Amino acid sequence: MISFSDRLLDRLSQCGRVAVLTGAGASAESGIPTFRDPQGLWARFNPAELASPQGFKSNPVRVQSWYTARRKAVLEADPNPGHRALARLQDFVHPTIVITQNVDGLHHRAGSDDVIEVHGNLHRTCCVSCRQETEPFDVSPNDAEPARCGCGGLLRPDVVWFGEPLQADALQAAAAAAMGADVFLVVGTGAEVYPAAGFPLIASEAGAYVVEVNVRATAISDSADEVLRGPAGVILPALVDAVGRLRTAVAKSASGVDNP
Length: 260
Ligand code: BJW
Ligand code: ZN
Fold this sequence. Notes:
Helices cover 39% and strands 17% of the residues. By secondary structure, it is of the alpha/beta class. Helix 7 runs parallel beside helix 11. The site of ligand BJW has 34 residues, from helix 2.
């Protein structure tokens, strides 16, 4: 059994608000590749070509076909025990706000109610000209023409590429969640991409207890209050089970079940 510090369990079982920042590592155990790990997407693909407005403009078929393949892979994947544990945490700590950099929608599918998708969602598609939301495109690398809207504009996934601003409402909601959190979990992110990578510091400066869950050291490991080293799909279910046991014990003793 994994053991957790009393400091963390006390805070989680007594606190009013949890916020969680998740990154690609949270979906790794669902079979979705991360970006910057040795087998990650950026080891095989060039982010300037595939995740920037300039790359899209110079070769829209390449970008649309890459996102078509990723969208299909995500549709075949399922939420993993880490996603489901965060959804279960809502039963014990409300609100549990999930700020995710992931565009795969797996937190929603796992049952988390309060999810802020700061980098968008790859299942949503919009037109670069009229901004209308449309059905997702299905484009292959060898297609001669890119997918277009009825208005003639190019279609793109509703995600945030490098150099693009995050949606103002998502950014504000995420900053507010970080500032209001008693405990701030940082799960499966290298914490290298801003502004999302700044949320743990915002939370810490506002008084949150910041806990990293990651298989490796990251840019924020040294500044976290506590580090839980291991896969999110193993650590998070054990942590939520421990919080649940503690909450149940506290509720029982308050109702006098153990002290008739
Ligand atoms: C596990 C695990 C397991 C593995 N369990 N853990 C200098 C130069 C150029 C730009 C900049 C610069 N300085 C700052 C910038 C800005 C730039 C930026 O931050 N760049 C840095 C790279 C330097 N940021 C932006 O451009 C952002 N926009 C912006 O700043 O706008 C300003 C603006 C204002 C006004 C007008 C105009 C502009 C936008 C950033 C958008 C990022 N987009 C992407 C693609 C999204 C769509 C898609 O999915 O295709 O978002 S890039 C990619 O990185 C994706 C991710 O969300 C993001 C973060 O990655 P993440 O999730 O941390 O993944 P990894 O792979 O890095 O880490 C995985 C972690 O998991 C690792 O730590 C593993 O150990 C761990 N792990 N298995 C637990 N089982
Ligand atoms: Zn259009």
